[in-house]
């Protein structure tokens, strides 16, 4: 299960974005959404063009990165405004 996620230089996340899913303190969650003190289901919402879809894509792409890099698709991950040659 995903407990912490950090991404830098990925699509619209030029700066580092860190989400610690295990630090749920103070928030009220449906008990069906927490397993072993970790969020197992979550809803992301916000204004248009703020990165909701790219957050989901980052989680999927990082999970599949070994396969995508083997296929030569290295530039799909990069932020367009960045000077770096890679995303982490």
Radius of gyration: 15 Å
Strand order of the largest sheet: 1-2
The count of strands amounts to: 4
Mean pLDDT metric: 75
Overall shape: elongated
Q: Helix- and strand-based class?
A: alpha+beta
Helix content: 10-25%
Instruction: Report the order of strands and helices.
Output: EEEEHH
Which blocks of ≥5 consecutive residues have pLDDT under 50?
none
Query: Could you tell me the strand content as a percent range?
Result: 5-15%
Sheet with the most strands?
Answer: 2 strands, antiparallel
Distance between the termini: 19 Å
How many DSSP H or I helices? 2
Question: What's the gist of this structure?
Answer:
This protein is of the alpha+beta class and about 90 residues long.
Blueprint (SSEs and pairs):
Elements lengths: L3 E4 L9 E4 L13 E2 L2 E2 L12 H12 L1 H6 L18
Antiparallel strand pairs: 1-2, 3-4
Structural notes for this entry:
The chain has helices spanning 52-63, 65-70, and strands spanning 4-7, 17-20, 34-35, 38-39. Helices cover 20% and strands 14% of the residues. The chain has 88 residues and is of the alpha+beta class. A two-stranded antiparallel sheet has the order 1-2. It starts with a strand and ends in an 18-residue tail after the last helix.
């Amino acid at each position: 299960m995903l407990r912490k996620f950090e991404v830098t230089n990925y699509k619209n996340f030029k700066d580092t974005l860190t989400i610690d899913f295990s630090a749920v303190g103070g928030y009220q969650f449906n008990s069906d959404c927490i397993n072993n003190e970790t969020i197992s289901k979550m809803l992301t919402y916000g204004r248009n063009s703020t990165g909701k879809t790219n957050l989901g894509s980052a989680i999927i792409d990082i999970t599949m990165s070994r396969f995508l890099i083997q296929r030569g698709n290295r530039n799909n991950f990069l932020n367009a405004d960045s000077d770096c040659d890679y995303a982490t």
